[in-house]
Amino acid sequence: MSDVTRAPCRWVVLCGLAATAVLAHGGAVRNGFLYDDFHLIVDNPAVQSHAWREIAGQKFRPVTMITYVVDHAIGGGRPAVYHATQLVWHVLVVGGVLLIGLSIWGRLTPAAAAALLVALHPVQTEAVHYLSARSSILSTFWMLVALWAYLEARKYAGLQRAANIGLGVTAFMLAILSKESGIVFLVWLAAYEAVVERAGWRDAFLRLGPYAAVAGAVWIGQQFVAFGVWGSGASVSVATGFATGVVVMARHLLAWIIPMGIDPVSPQSWVAPASFAAAGAAALFAVVAIALAWGWRARPLVSWGVVCGLTALFPVMVLPLLTDVALFQPHRGYPASVGFALATVEAVRALGAVAARWVRWRRGLLRSVAPAVAGWVATVALVLGAVWADASQGRVWRDEVRFWSEATLRYPREARYHHSLGAAFLRAGDFARAVDALTTAARLDPMLPRLHYNLGLVYTGMGRLDDALAEYERARERDPTDFKSLANLGWLYEKKGETARALDAYRAALRAAPGLGPVRERVERLDRLGTVAP
Questions:
Q1: Which of 346-350, 417-421, 444-448 has the highest mean pLDDT?
Q2: Which of these, 29, 74, 91, 455, is most buried using a 10 Å CB contact count?
Q3: Domain ends where: 339, 369, 393?
Q4: Does residue 65 sit in the same domain as residue 115?
Q5: Which of 172, 196, 201, 143 is nearest to 304 (CA)?
Q6: One domain for residues 359 and 485
Q7: What residues form DSSP beta bridges with 327?
Q8: Structural domain contains residue 299
């Protein structure tokens, strides 16, 4: 009897995996908000006011935004509730990998090994501890549900097959609405048909048809909802953007292969096409291509898993071509971990089969038991080491002042990190240190977004209103649609008794954001006073 048929074993393993993941990442519930969490969650009116109509158009990701709103409704904005939910979604992803492994291998041991890799690999820590990375976890979960349903649909006919197709298509739609990069799931299915099943193009087309239709409909709908969100593209050349994207993609792959010293704030500069870094990334992918060619015939599951991992990283490579963002953030590789975990386990199984042909344990109980005992001891040691490493790495995310202080010490020339440190000091009420950090950021890169706005907030808190006015005016000069700076500018002018300038700033803020109710009320109040004609 195969171990997959023993349901009690599956539940025991699933509970063990969940407990291990919680042991490794449970410290996240003591974390606060950090970096993008503030504008995405804390200062987001759709989340704070449960304004459901505003959710659908936010950053393409209404499903993710809904989970934030639910968390706020349950916990009233306490970060522990958000982090607990994030940990639950990670555990659900681990369970999903276990189900996929059982469906592919029909055995519990390799399925559990793949799930354990996804649960504990150090590259996952950022995604679990960083609330703004929830979209990656959610999209991965729904992709796993869709993949399981797709694999199940291949086993049945009639009504059961139709039900699985319906579940798969629905889950695929939710994956894209959690994060737009979920559309790469379509490539996962096409690769499975071509590499693993060796299906003909007609059969593959019929199976993929419903998923392709959903992908097209949701993608087009997203473009209408968030038209123009990507801007006009990066300011660097296409060659530089492409080279940078390839290097970032290679860094994600290396982080999976060599999980040592993964830095949550590791910077990424623009890469010239003829640079050593670009050549090294190209060499790495050449080796991967050779491995794929080998696996295509010898171990198709290895090739399929690698293809899934690389295609999940494809949006990371494209990002520098579409925006002025060149980032290496481990959480962006979270969906790729599924493919890499499956490929890793299948590759180890292949190596194990080769080793078994060379090593013969024919005599004696000790010789027959020793390899198994050694294997279990090594496995337990690796799991305990991974749990300790994940828990240690997770503590870095606990306090944002400490987080950015350590980042500026490691990378003193990174203006963004000094800016983030200044914002952290601002939220902590330490205005003097906030000024020091923000002025350092301004010296390194005076064009940083939100820099002058944050300096205005700091100077206002210190009572230095003239300095605050100067900073808000600089913010206005740089971006005339910065409604937050404009609203604060109007309030300061009103406080100084300069009503004409206050009205000018308020009206500019309303032109940029007509929904600012408090600003509109101030304009109406000043108009009623009749101090200045509207």
A1: 417-421
A2: 455
A3: 393
A4: yes
A5: 196
A6: no
A7: 267
A8: yes
CB 476 within 8 A of CB 489: yes
Per DSSP, helices labelled H in 123-260 are: 125-129, 134-153, 158-178, 185-191, 201-225, 238-257
Q: How confident is the model at residue 362, as a pLDDT? A: 46
In DSSP notation, 110-127 reads HHHHHHHHHHH-GGGHHH
How many residues are there in the chain? 534
**Residue 533 phi/psi, 5° resolution?**
-70, 140
Q: Is 303 among the domain residues? A: yes
Q: Is 376 among the domain residues?
A: yes
CATH at residue 468: 1.25.40.10
Mean predicted confidence (pLDDT) in 349-360 = 68
When pLDDT is cut at 50, 70 and 90, the band that residue 368 belongs to is: low
Q: Residue 206 contacts by C-beta under 8 Å, 6 or more apart in sequence? A: none
Say if residue 382 is in the same domain as residue 469: no
Helix, strand, coil abundance in the chain, percent, nearest 5: 80, 0, 20
Stretch 480-504: mean pLDDT: 89
Q: What is the DSSP letter of 56?
A: T
Residue 519 — pLDDT band, cuts 50, 70, 90? Answer: confident
Give the pLDDT confidence score for residue 365 in this predicted structure: 45
Do 375 and 509 sit in the same domain of this protein?
no
Q: Which domain holds residue 488?
A: 400-529
pLDDT tens digits along 169-181: 999 999 999 998 8
Taking all residues of the chain, what is their mean pLDDT, rounded to a whole number? 84
What SS3 class is residue 481? coil
Tell me, yes or no, whether 357 and 420 share the same domain.
Answer: no
Same domain flag for 8 and 125: yes
Vertex 455: Cα angle to 451 and 457 (nearest 5): 120
DSSP state of 452: H
Q: Which helix (H) or strand (E) holds 357?
A: helix 336-358
**What tens digit of pLDDT does each residue of 107-162 get?**
898 999 999 999 999 889 999 999 999 999 999 999 999 999 999 988 888 898 89
Side-chain-side CA neighbours of 470 within 13 Å: the count stands at 5
Give the largest Cα separation in the chain, rounded: 102
Using CA atoms, how far residue 344 sits from 30, 350, 379, 508, in Å, is 33, 10, 15, 56
* pLDDT for position 517: 80
Same domain, 177 and 130: yes
pLDDT at 54 over 80: no
| Percent of residues, the chain, with pLDDT higher than 90 | 40
534, part of any domain: no
Q: Is the pLDDT of residue 68 over 80?
A: yes
Cβ contact 32:398 at 8 Å:
yes
Give me the sign of the Cα torsion angle 195, 197, 198, 200: negative
Please state the domain count of the chain. Answer: 2
Last residue of a domain, one of 328, 358, 393: 393
